[in-house]
Design the sequence.
């Protein structure tokens, strides 16, 4: 990977980290204000409905728009790009308005699908919330399209920036909801989606975008993107089935189970969002360009490199989260209305969700590899198999393991998907450095296991030493988590260098070179 690519990935990583931190603050504020009860369950379910209903369209647009952007600009010019973008924008707006009308009219039935276990007050509240938040569909669609336009225009950092104003507005809304009533929180969340759109508009015009009022379903570029979108669209909804199944089954468990599952999943995807999404966002245009130029050797090299980086970065994170799931949840969420029962539910779900962290990362990179090759069908086929596995395992495991069974089913299905995608990609383009990836996996796994044992031992040692020093339990947990994790990570880095893992040595060389530059400037 070139220096500019690494720099872009690092900057985006920092932005996404900031975004994820504000997102966690939002979740912490919600947990501490409303706890894990019927209001939070109703709010999160209502919030999830428009995402599930329209996220498929938004995600498929984001995936297929970027290759189309480059193709149209190269063959027909930038004005045609503006025309195409406006046409897609207008068509999506009309579709979302129709879906909003349907959502309002059939809200009681839709809520029943998403949370079949809800009854009485929580059911009525969810229906009321959903009729408000369904309007967010139009903003989800427009925001997704504008973000894709900006990323294709070279502004890759916008994908991380847009969630920051959203999280800030939602936190304000939650605070107002606690003072007045919960409906302020719901209306405030809707306004947060509008804030995302307003935030992007100046960037849009900065890149010279010219809006055109046009709705032409017969346009050749619209026909082409529809052909590419359909498999991705179906794949997105196939993946959403996992979410619906998990939430539906969770609604039959103890009160607060949906909230616990939601927080655990967000904690689990925190690292995936920071590292893997940053890497895939930067690499996607590069892989698309290499594929269009038929530079398969370079394409394979970049895919292999991305997979190795994902393994090196995500494996230790998986082990850390598995080992410290209860202290992490206690530290972040347990306060006020979020009691010890909620902590137990959330940490149990987090433990089993974390088993799939590496698989989630590999799946993202491999899926983007297929999309770069303009193959949108293979990821859908593999995702369908994954959903079948998840649904069957969820139904079986929830009976024996409760909320932990739902999380474990998701992790197993993610592992299955990543394995199937890897095999499929190898069949499509030939060898992609599988031997090198397996060797890297073994080395990283050994280093991570040793690190995990050291972290576990260090955590309890620090707790024992600090019991007479720190009066507050959370201070002790925080110091123990941070201290043991730092010790473990230092050992992990040393082991990856001893094991001669190339990517680790490259990073060490970059840091060493940067340090020398700083010293030299002085």
Sequence:
């Amino acid at each position: 990977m070139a220096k500019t690519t690494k720099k872009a990935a690092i900057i985006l990583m920092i932005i996404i980290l900031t975004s994820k931190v504000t997102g966690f603050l939002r979740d912490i504020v919600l947990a501490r204000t409303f706890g894990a009860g019927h209001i939070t369950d109703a709010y999160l379910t209502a919030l999830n409905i428009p995402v599930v209903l329209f996220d498929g369209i938004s995600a498929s647009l984001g995936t297929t728009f970027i290759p189309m952007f480059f193709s149209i600009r190269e063959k027909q010019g930038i004005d045609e790009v503006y025309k195409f973008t406006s046409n897609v924008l207008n068509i999506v707006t009309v579709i979302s308005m129709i879906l909003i009308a349907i959502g309002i009219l059939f809200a009681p039935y839709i809520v029943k699908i998403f949370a079949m276990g809800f009854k009485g007050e929580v059911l009525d509240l969810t229906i009321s919330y959903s009729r408000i938040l369904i309007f967010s569909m139009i903003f989800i669609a427009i925001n997704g399209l504008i973000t894709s336009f900006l990323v294709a225009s070279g502004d890759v950092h916008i994908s991380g920036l847009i969630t920051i104003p959203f999280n800030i507005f939602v936190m304000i809304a939650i605070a107002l909801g606690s003072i007045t009533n919960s409906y302020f929180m719901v209306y405030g969340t809707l306004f947060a989606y509008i804030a995302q759109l307003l935030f992007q508009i100046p960037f849009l015009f900065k890149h010279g975008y010219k809006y055109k009022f046009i709705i032409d379903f017969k346009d050749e570029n619209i026909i082409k993107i529809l052909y590419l979108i359909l498999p991705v669209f179906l794949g997105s909804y196939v993946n959403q089935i996992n979410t619906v199944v998990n939430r539906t089954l969770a609604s039959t468990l103890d009160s607060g189970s949906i909230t616990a599952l939601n927080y655990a999943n967000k904690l689990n995807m925190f690292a995936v969002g920071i590292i893997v999404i940053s890497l895939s966002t930067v690499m996607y245009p590069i892989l698309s360009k290499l594929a269009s130029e038929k530079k398969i050797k370079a394409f394979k090299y970049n895919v292999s490199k991305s997979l190795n980086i994902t393994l090196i970065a995500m494996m230790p994170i998986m082990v850390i989260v598995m080992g410290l799931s209860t202290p992490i949840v206690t530290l972040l969420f347990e306060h006020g209305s979020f009691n010890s029962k909620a902590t137990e539910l959330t940490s149990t779900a987090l433990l089993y969700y974390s088993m799939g962290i590496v698989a989630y990362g590999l799946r993202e990179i491999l899926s983007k590899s297929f999309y770069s090759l303009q193959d949108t069908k293979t990821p859908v086929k593999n995702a369908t198999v994954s959903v079948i596995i998840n649904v069957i395992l969820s139904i079986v495991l929830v009976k024996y393991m409760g909320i932990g069974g739902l999380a474990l089913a998701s992790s197993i299905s993610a592992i299955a998907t990543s394995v199937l995608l890897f095999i499929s990609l190898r069949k499509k383009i030939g060898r992609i450095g599988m031997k090198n990836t397996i060797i890297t996996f073994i080395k990283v796994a050994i280093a991570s296991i040793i690190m995990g044992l050291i972290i576990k031992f260090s955590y309890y040692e620090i707790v024992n030493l600090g019991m007479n020093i720190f009066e507050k339990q959370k201070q002790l947990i925080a110091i123990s988590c941070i201290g043991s994790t730092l010790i473990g990570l230092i050992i992990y880095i040393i082991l990856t260098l001893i094991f001669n893992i190339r990517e680790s040595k490259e990073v060490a060389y970059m840091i060493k070179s940067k340090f020398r530059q700083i010293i030299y400037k002085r």
Q: What stands out?
A: The radius of gyration is 23 Å. Residues 68 and 216 are 17 Å apart (CA to CA).
